[in-house]
Here is the input.
Amino acid sequence: MDDFKVVTSELRKEAKLWQEKADKAEPIVRAVQEAYLSATAFFVGDPATLGVGMINAKLEADQYENFRAFMEKVVQGAVTEFGQIDVALRRIADEYDRTESVNEIDLAKFYSA
Amino acid sequence: MSGRDEMTNLFERGFQGLEDKARECADKFNAAVHHIHGWRYVLGPAMFAIRPALDTIRDGLETLFKLIRTAMEHHWPVVSLIWQSFSWVEKVQAPMNNLVHEKTDLAYYWTGPASTKYQDKVTAQNDAIAAVATKSGNVSKWLMDIAKYNIEYMTKLAEMVTGFLGALVAAAIEAATVVEIPFTVTDLAGAIGALVTQSLDNLVGIAKRFAEALSKVRDILSMMSDPKLPKNQWPQAVTG
Here is the structure.
């Protein structure tokens, strides 16, 4: 049993910060969603008429889209995670208040949604 | 770095009057053909030299029109690329960096293993935030490079159509006397031929540098693997 101390109001204050982060991350997800670009968006030029081989930027546009989708998923994950940290901290605070325990609490329980 | 509006304006400048000038080129050329046609019997054998010269001019015009048509079709999509290159910095990277969790006084009020475990999780979250911000900055740079070549291209294409129209106006075939016609037409064909060759050289060079910049999409793809984002996702502080 390790020694520990806790002021649960501080824990709840900390939790609120993560809820705010979750809210602030939402518009970032939308910005990444809006960053979609069609293959026609990459070049105003006419490689066919210029005879420089490359027909269009489809391959690269697809790869960019893979990256964009990856970023969207990651930032969406951040929104979820920030919200879950908020909940976990509040639960831990509740548990401390309920048990007034000076012993370790079951951490694993709080860090799983 | 220039701002979004400035970049957009530079790009737009290439489109200003583009179609009007192309139309004027066509009108000038058609007037010339019409004028020559009216004198064809008088010109007689001189027509053997005039026809291939006219073909050179017509070919040049057709190439120019194709380039302009493609540019018009891609105009707005490329504007959206310019905007997105700024959006990755302004709407993703900057707000992302603002999410970094600054250490609070919590560590003074909460100690023990539960607290330590929490602080470790904060570090992982901050690392992921920094990683996403960096990636957003990099993809923005990539798009910005591509945007730059699009602007260069439009600048050259605008010069090409201006040069073309200038040559047609200077030659004024539609007003040439029958005596002047053969020389004027062959002179013009020479000037147009040189202009088209030079312009295409420039545009091909830009297209090649563009393709080179575009191929750096590889670097973008490689950013999808990052230990700061384990299993290609946001680090799970809370599982499930």
